[in-house]
Design goal:
206 residues; 4 strands; 35% helix; AB_hydrolase_fold; AB hydrolase-1 domain-containing protein; AB_hydrolase_1
Length: 206
């Protein structure tokens, strides 16, 4: 894997809103090297909860590094995570994060697409882990999923949301229409910002 570059549509949208953008590869991805520590184990005994906490640990390291970058105002950081990174944002938000004012989940989950669309290892464990994260959530969130997400389809996304919020309306859930051949790619795909951009802009404005 390689980081998305600054000329990408995703980066340009946030830059256009006046934000500095930092793309970081977590341990074990691409040229970052090191051990891949985010495994959830086997499909038969998936531990999504602790896998997400490890992703969150690495997100916290990235957030801690941001103030060291010259000319960066790190007083109000936005953390956006996609897919496994999005799952990490749920775990991250279960911990205190005083410099992060906004947390956004784009198509979060783990264990999806096991040989075919919407086949997930132990989906009930994914829902249970989401519930545990939500019990100690420290800030509102925005969740965005496409209806034709081949990794985490509408019913599973809704179950995770319901478990995470447990009736708390501070988490905004946006289930957008189908996008391309697989809506799981919405965040980084060409044309995707026309869909998620206005949602994030409105959310940040609120």
């Amino acid at each position: 894997m390689t980081p998305t570059n600054c000329s990408s549509e995703t980066a340009q949208w946030f830059l256009g809103q006046g934000y500095a953008v930092m793309f970081v590869l977590r341990l074990g991805y691409g040229a970052t090297g090191g051990p891949w520590t985010e495994t959830f184990g086997t499909c038969d005994d998936a531990d999504y909860y602790h896998a997400g906490l490890e992703t969150a640990r690495q997100i916290r390291a990235m957030v801690a590094y941001a103030p060291k970058i010259e000319d960066i105002d790190a007083s109000d950081i936005i953390v956006v995570g996609h897919s496994a990174g999005g799952w990490g944002t749920l775990a991250f938000n279960s911990m205190p994060h005083p410099t992060v004012g906004t947390v956004i989940n784009m198509a979060a989950g783990r264990g999806g697409y096991q040989g075919a669309p919407n086949v997930t290892c132990q989906p009930e464990r994914l829902v249970e882990a989401a519930r545990r994260y939500g019990e100690t959530a420290t800030a509102p969130m925005l969740w965005i999923y496409a209806r034709n997400d081949h990794f985490f389809g509408p019913s599973l996304a809704q179950e995770m949301y319901d478990a995470y919020t447990a009736g708390d309306d501070e988490v905004q859930f946006e289930h957008v229409g189908s996008f391309g051949e697989d809506g799981h790619q919405l965040f980084f795909a060409r044309g995707g910002s026309r869909i998620w951009g206005p949602l994030i802009e409105t959310y940040l404005g609120d």
